[in-house]
Amino acid sequence: MHLDARGRTTIRRWPAAIAILLAAFILAGPLRAAAPQDTARASIADGSAEFVAAETPNYGSQVQPIFDRRCIACHGCLGSPCNVKLDSYRGVDRGGFGENPYSTRLTADPRTDMDAAQTTAEWRERGFYPILARTESAQTNLDDSILFRMIEAGMRNNGPGFSRASVDPFRLQRFAATCPSTAEALAARLQEHPGLGMPFGLPALAEEDFAILRDWIALGSPGPTEAEEARAQEVGNPTAVAAWEAFFNGSDPRQALVSRFIFEHVFLATIVLEDSPGDRFRLVRSRTPPPQVVEDGQGGRRVESTPIDLISTALPYGDPGTERFWYRLEKLTAAPVQKSFFVWRLAPDDIARLSDLFLSPDWAADADLDPPWDIGNPFRVFAAIPAEARYRFLLENAEVIIGGITYGPVCNGQIATYAVKDQFWVFFLDPEHDVSVRDPSLGLDGWDLFMDRSLVGNAEYLEAYAKTRARLDPDGWSLDAIWDGDGENRNAWLTILRHETNVSVLRGAQGGMPQTFWLMGYSGLERLYYDTVASFEYWAGDGRKLETLLFFNMLRQEFEDGFLGLLPRQERERIRHQWTRGIGSVALSLIPFETADQPTRVDIRGPDPLLDLVEQIAQRLGPRISGLPDRLNPRVKPERAVDAPVKDFDDWEVAVSMLTAVQGQRFVPEMPSVLVLRLNRAEGPPQDRHRVYSLVANRVYKSQYTLMFQNGQALPDEDTLSLYPTLVNGFPNLFIDLDLADASRFLTDLRAIQGKDDWNRFASRYGILRDSTRFWPFYDWINRWNVENRGDAAGWLDLSYYDAPET
């Protein structure tokens, strides 16, 4: 083991089995589309410019709303197809990039997040090409615009009933294909594959939307004026922003390290201030100071602010490059996309809470308040901050911290999600019982081992943890060792869901009894966060990403083993091998079972030890934390026939609960990951005529230890269905619009599915397919419902995997 230039552990000790796995992964090689041909430019429809209006459409009020409604569903996140990001004018103007940063490759690519460059000229230097043309000729602007050629191709070919199957192979290549960088090359590609027009694989734009975009592109595609941009940056309550920036830049000599700790843990989060409603922010580092509140001379006060001069580093702990900088709240104006959107909500009294949490405890007199930069080891960097304060911050905001893992830059996680199971519940150690809080160094003489991502280093860390626990808790843990959220905080019990290439996090016990559980303490949670978020280099080559994945697997095993340590000793090995089977049994032999011989003070009496333990935890934490009982996914089913008449919403929920959280149902393996269902009734007040549900398939696999574990690792007889009375996840796979009158037959037909052909017929009958004229109206409705019912947690839904292959 040695440290690289950033102070992070590099790996020299992977066992042969993992080295072979790595080699097999790399040698598989990237799949690349053929290079674009350099053909003569073919003019678009003759006379296109003749229909262009005399007045240029306004970008903010006319153009961007179209991009929001129809384009950011696939082009609103890091890793969008061809890296075209259409959620802001900056993104449109920067254009596209030939290769996706998530494509399979050995070497690193340039960063493509919007902070990597500040001007269009800088993006051009990085290899980005324009998708717009700006000349004196309207026709030339249309002919030379990649954006226009794509939407025009969609208008030609994506009418009702277009071929859905013809574009499916291209969906599977979204991380492999290169992208045409000129209008001429694109014309050749479209001539060969006319179905590639935009919106890709979805119905074409409405004529009026197409006309607005055509006119805007033809007339030079201008962006917002300076006055419009200034208005967009105005905040509802500048005083609230000033108060928070004053806290983050406080005069206490310890505050700089506290703010650095907070920043590194929430830099991806969207911040919502309770007393500045309607605004969204992010915490950034700036070369310019925070605003000043000054007297206006008339008995009032005003806020004088300076523009943010953003400091952008590849990783959040990167050297800011200047001796003096400030933490600022930057207002976000781009429309949020659900897949990368998670919120940190702050109320005015949270300033006092955070001050008390971090600054009230005694700090060591010799504490290092100015540790070096570029070190991805939070245990070393933040050693001066009392460990309990650090851990309580993570606990009280656990959904946000885990949100960085599940909703971060990796919008489509690909193999990164293979390390976790489809549904599990997470619990946390109480700070008073967590040995990594009581003895933060775990008896070691340094901090390097905490972030050593090798098998040997991980084993040494687990050994140190076990020895410390045996010394501090020789009799083992009781139920009191599980954090109860102080009776109020629902972050104490989290539900994690994996949906093929993406992951969701929910508070409380949701979706029915899962197969596995995690128990995490401070050091484990911090290791997980820095492995998958703070130190994750999305632009890196495959070797670096595989290292992250393998360490993630070791961490998952640590957390599963932590939970097993609460059970009777004689039950642990059996359940551990039940949770990891097949080729994973080999991996189990390589990762120490750290809690195998740990004593336990939990009294398990029932015939099912896992069920008995979870019921005891639920009783200890209480219904406010757990949210139990779960009437939509009950373990004990109601006495009702599934095919009984459904007269109202209550009947529906009772009927469908007969199918949830039950193994062995043939229809579940055939389902896509997430169905979004609108259930309608004809009578009643307008606000109560619809209910929205998410039907989520929980798939079970023998092991999480192979890159291609779906192939031969699936256990379809153990799959289950979960039902949620809201939108879950940002990637719906199919919309279903169902009337109550048809609900009983819907459930009967669902139960009758025996294979893929049955599912396809079911989806065609009940689903809104991609070529349907009902698609966009329903998509618009569900996004409005999302905003109206989920408020500042709502973002635009992604359509990358809608009615199409997921894997």
UniProtKB/TrEMBL annotation:
InterPro entries: Cyt_c-like_dom, Fatty_acid_cis-trans_isomerase
Keywords per UniProt: Heme, Iron, Isomerase, Metal-binding
Gene Ontology molecular function, alphabetical: electron transfer activity; heme binding; isomerase activity; metal ion binding
Domain Cytochrome c: 42-221
Source superkingdom: Bacteria
Protein known as: Fatty acid cis/trans isomerase (CTI)
